[in-house]
Amino acid sequence: MSLAATFPARGGAPFKNGAPPRAARTWRNPSALPGFGLSLGFTLFYLSAIVLVPLAALVIRPWELGWSGFWDAVGNARVLHALKLSFGGAAIAAAINSVFGLIVAWVLVRYRFPGKRIVDALVDLPFALPTAVAGIALSALYARNGWLGAPLEAMGIHIAYTPLGVVLALTFIGLPFVVRTLQPILSELSRESEEAAATLGATRFQTMRRVILPMLSPALLTGTAMAFARAVGEYGSVIFIAGNLPGISEIAPLLIIIKLNENDYAGAAAIGVIMLAASFVMLLALNLLQAWASARR
Amino acid sequence: MTRFFSALAAIALFVSSTAQAADITLLNVSYDPTRELYKAVNAAFAADWKAKHGDNVTINQSHNGSGAQSRAIIDGLDADVATLALAYDIDAIAAKGLIAKNWQSRLPQGATPYTSTIVFLVRKGNPWKIKDWLDLIKPGISVITPNPKTSGGARWAFLAAWAYALKAPGGNADKAKAFVAALYHHVPVLDTGARGSTTTFVQRGIGDVLLSWENEAHLALKEQGGDQFQIVYPPVSILAEPPVSVVDKNVDRHGTRAVAEAYLNFLYSKPAQEIEARNFYRPRDAAVLAAHAADFPKITLYNFAELFGDWQKAQATYFADKGVFDQIYKPGQ
Amino acid sequence: MKVIFRPRGPTRDHPLLRWSLTGIALGFIGLFLVLPLATVFTEALGEGWRAALDAITDPEAQSAIRLTLLAAAIAVPLNALFGIAASWAVAKFDFWGKGFLVTLIDLPFSISPVVSGLIYVLMFGLQGWFGDTLRDHDIKIIFALPGIVLATIFVTFPFVARELIPLMTDQGRDEEEAAVSLGAGGFSTFRRVTLPNIKWGLLYGVLLCNARAMGEFGAVSVVSGHIRGLTDTMPLHIEALYNDYHYSAAFAVATLLALLALVTLALKSLLEWRYADEISAVHHH
Predict the structure, then answer these.
(1) For residue range A266-297, what is the model confidence (pLDDT) as tens digits?
(2) CA nearest to A211 within chain C
(3) Residue of B212, B148, B202 lying closest to B180 (CA atoms)
(4) Which pLDDT value is given to residue A158?
(5) Nearest chain B Cα distance for residue C267, angstroms
(6) Which of residues 247-286 of B touch C (CB under 8 A)?
(7) CB burial class (10 A; 0-12, 13-18, 19+) of residue B257?
(8) Are residues B75 and B153 in the same domain?
(9) Which range marks the domain in which residue B227 is found?
(10) What is the CATH number of the domain that holds A127?
(11) Four-residue CA torsion sign, A107, A112, A115, A121
(12) Do residues A96 and A178 lie in contact, with contact meaning Cβ atoms separated by under 8 Å?
């Protein structure tokens, strides 16, 4: 779950533990607990040193090209196509994950079957497995002479070195997000609404569509958005299976590396800024979505 | 008494020898396919230096695409020597002041101790009957070559194809451009480096022909089995000249200039030229080349400088943003 | 074994639906998770046990393993410390800009690893902001261990914090406030009251942080110098072996990381199972 899910919008409902509503608009509420200065200070220092200052270096760099230079760097067809592939591929992968992730989460929470615990543990594999290992494994699996690649090849379906391969790798990466976001919600879902719907004569399908799914949709959206955000910038697992053909199967992170190697730092930073901005906007949208969803409840 | 003096002498000798034996470390930043070559060369040089000066020399290697390595050195990778795929990549380092501008004239033959060329690697039996560059654009054929934007070898391959079309009877720049455009439309995957392309062709089974460094092709045969592939030498190709240089700023800071320069000079010596020939790089030494003539068929090798001038011009014309490669490689085609 | 003709409650799904959904779910998991994992192990043994073991005991592989362990050993505790500090500040106090801070903490999670490496090159590379100063003092950051550690820290930055912040927020402040009113000092309160409550969250966060730290590829690839035996971490060494035509060797070293991943998952599962009661107790405060 996104961190900001726990915080209602400013000026919203007070905290669960009964902190008193703010009387005046001081920047912080007085508290009996010690350690605020130390913990916040260290947090801000660490955050700035590791994240903010280096990101500033990224954001500042492209502007040595000037505005027109910046748009030149990112507006050309090759860059646009790479961005389209990275974002588009991530979107398709996230969509696949939302459908199948929902099914997997449902099955894991509602049903019992032998080996369930193992399957449950395995869902976290993309989190724990290094991206490079996933990359070479996927590329070996779907290559022309791979276990899956060979039969697919016989059917005329090319996976490795095509955008399809990119989508597959991105699906792998995003798999745990949807499942892990849905599982806690599903397990806490009270059966009462379902039972009520059943007593009112709804078929199971209607119940699913009108009762259960709406209750799940905030979490489902969150999980899908997170899978998307993760997939957009993915490099290690995709680079071994992507074809890297400019305009066809070249992902945006690879383009950054290519530009770096051409000594075009500003161009590389420009693409980096675009991707950073997109991530930031997505995170913001996600937080707003969460706030709206929790306000609804 | 004599025993005392001989003991003293022994101690003196021991002390002086250990006092003189320093431990020197060099970093050789090189391009993709030269791993095996420099493993062998470094061992030979270390032995040679130890015999002459008594110091222990360790040479660390870094390998990546030539352009990537050039960029890394510019960004601060502490290379003592740079042994890259094309002069342009070393020029880029010189432009930033890390290497003297006259680097190419400091060593014999334009600072290239060995040369290579671009050949074709095909599946055993040569099912597509590939003999010449024109065969590469047969309908339905699939050609593997790396991305010229990131790979030195790929740039040589591009220029070799261009040179072929340019020098063919009735050839001119427009025809060359059309030929190269057609060629790249037959390429299904562009790896970032020469090794990546070889892996794609040899291991993953993609493509019908690989445009490869000569040494890479031989290495592939050796490592992957000569029963699956064979090398086809086109009648013409380009003379690829991978240059070497010390990185002046770094060696002066480290105090390793003497060793680094000796290392590069060693590359021209007979033992090193022999190692290079054994690793399928064409040695500059005529005698060594003659001894290995069976491995290096004589084909017409076009000279880069004659056809393309200098690398600044070539890079700007063909490989830079909006250059010829960008023009022929329109997205989605 | 469920019997088909058992009377169904209103919230139970039709058996046909159950079986098809289960089949689809298992098929999906099998296709996307199990098969790639199995590929790693079978390819590793492609040239036999001996060759695989040789690949792992090779000096360059050993040095890559050491470098990976070292980078993780530095990055994970630092990020854990940060996670604790951040969640203390965020969960136990109210202040303006808290939501924004939390969004910033989440940021590295959705930044491309390549960008994560790029930013340190832009800062510490010779052409970057501090490049000349560093060179004058002969301090090496990029293309050396510090650069690798920095990139690793950046990429695994939010893991512990993401785990602890919701947890500590959920748990509220009552216990800590009670302890303070009874006269306990700050660290004492933390040590005796907070820490026992968050230990499982902390452990999960550290486990995932560690797995990611050891496996990071993209970011480290940009800042490493690819110097064999010196600045190659395990993932980079795997790539190097792959590029050297030593495919089985590459997969053999990859097996180590895959095994690490499996151990991480197993530990997480084991802890969840054995301490399920404790965990649910601290979650629903």
Answers:
(1) 888 888 888 888 877 877 777 777 777 666 65
(2) C11
(3) B148
(4) 78
(5) 36
(6) 253
(7) middle
(8) no
(9) 118-238+303-328
(10) 1.10.3720.10
(11) positive
(12) no
Sequence-distant (6+) residues with CB within 8 A of A251 are A82, A85, A86, A89, A166, A234, A235, A238, A239, A242
C83 φ/ψ angles, rounded to the nearest 5 degrees: -55, -45
Whether C243 sits inside 8 A of B74 (CB atoms) is no
Q: pLDDT for A180-235, tens place per residue?
A: 888 888 887 777 877 887 788 877 777 778 888 888 888 888 888 888 888 888 88
Count of the separate structural domains present in chain B: 2
**Residue with the larger pLDDT of the pair C149 and A243:** C149
CATH number at residue B274: 3.40.190.10
| CA distances, C55 to each of A149, B196, B289, C40 (Å) | 27, 21, 36, 14
Residues 6+ apart with CB under 8 A from A162: A243, A249
Interface contact flag, B204 A244, Cβ < 8 Å: no
Per residue in B223-262, pLDDT tens? 777 788 999 999 999 999 999 999 999 999 999 999 999 9
Q: How far apart are CA C67 and CA C58, in angstroms?
A: 14
For residue A34, the distance in angstroms to the closest alpha carbon of chain B comes to: 45
Chain C residues with CB-CB distance to B224 below 8 A: 245
Inter-residue contact B148 to B66 (CB < 8 Å): no
**A243/B189 touch (CB, cutoff 8 Å), yes or no:** yes
Q: In this complex, which chains have at least 3 CB pairs below 8 Å with chain B? A: A, C
> Are residues B63 and C142, on separate chains, in Cβ contact within 8 Å?
no
Chains that touch C (3 or more CB pairs under 8 A): A, B
Q: Tell me whether residue B50 is in a domain.
A: yes
Are B102 and B209 found together in one domain? no
The amino acid sitting at C195 is: L
CB contact under 8 A, A256 and C115: yes
Question: In this structure, are B146 and B195 located in the same domain?
Answer: yes
Residue B100: exposed, middle, or buried by beta-carbon count in 10 A (0-12, 13-18, 19+)?
Answer: middle
User: How distant is the Cα of B13 from the closest Cα of chain A, in angstroms?
Assistant: 51
Could you tell me if B259 and B233 lie in one domain?
no
Instruction: Flag whether A115 is in a domain.
Output: yes
What is the pTM (predicted TM-score) of this model? 0.81
Interface test with B, best of A244, A249, A260, A265 (most B CBs within 10 A): A244
A 161-180 residues with CB < 8 A to C: 168, 171-172, 175
Model confidence pLDDT, tens digit, residues A37-58: 888 889 999 989 888 888 888 8
**Does residue B214 fall inside a structural domain?**
yes
Nearest residue in chain B measured CA to CA from C143: B77
Q: What span, in angstroms and rounded, lies between the C-alpha atoms of A157 and B333?
A: 20
In which domain, by residue range, is A219 found? Answer: 76-261
User: Under an 8 A CB cutoff, do B61 and C240 touch?
Assistant: no
pLDDT in tens, A80-133: 888 888 888 889 999 999 999 999 998 898 888 888 888 888 888 888 888 888
What is the band of B27 on the pLDDT scale with cuts at 50, 70, 90?
very high
Does B155 lie in the same domain as B13?
A: no
Q: Per the domain annotation, does B333 fall within a domain? A: no
Measured in angstroms, the CA of A86 and the nearest CA of chain B are apart by 15
- The interface predicted TM-score (ipTM) is 0.78
Instruction: Based on the fold, state whether residues B90 and B224 are members of the same structural domain.
Output: no
Q: How far is C220 from chain B, CA to nearest CA, in Å?
A: 13
Cα C6 to its chain centre, rounded Å, is: 45
Chain C contact probe: residue of A29, A33, A258, A276 with most C CBs at under 10 A? A33
For range C139-162, the mean pLDDT? 89
Domains of chain C, earliest start first: 48-283 (1.10.3720.10)
B47 and B87, same structural domain?
Answer: yes
Same domain assignment for residues B182 and B135: yes
| Residue B151 within a domain | yes
**Overall domain count for chain A:** 1
Give the separation between CA B59 and CA B39, rounded to whole angstroms.
9
